[in-house]
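Chapter summary example.
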Amino acid sequence: EKWAALLQASLSQIASLIHIHKENQLVIKQLQEQEQMAKELYTIFSKELMVVVLQDFLPVLEQVINENLAKMVDYEIRFTVPEATDEKMELDITVIDQHGEREVKSLSGGQKAIIKIAWILAVSVLMKSKFLLLDETITSMDVFTIAKVADVLEDFVKSKQMKFYVVTHSPQIQEMTIWDRTVEVNTN
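The structure predicted for these 188 residues follows.
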């Protein structure tokens, strides 16, 4: 009788644990569905929301980006926010150079990398960043352009008195005089 009562109590606990497990599985499934829906909404709205949030800052951002670009290349960018449609709102970025106005996608990989660097510098100015991190940002540039970029980065970091971290294979960047220390990683 004692064993039967103990067995009955154990079976009751097991049944309770199975019930709790099923409830937890249901909650997990609901959370996964909510997470998926949130990801889909983020994908749909992230670009549009970013444009709306940045819209007031775009003129200043464009000016600071173009100031940095002028130190490295002979083109500038222009932001335009077309009238919103029922479908989506996007930020158009065009390049203006000796060939006129054209789309960013017409630029080479190195030219796009320079725009990214100018964008990063502009955002770090506006956000008053304490450090700057670049990871192989200049790999698609020629040696002459890398030298210009290295000068701009060096001047920028010194003028802003910020920490600068970079991952690079470029000798021009490695030889800059702003490093507190250099870490070399050999992968044999």
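To summarize the output: The longest strand covers residues 92-97.
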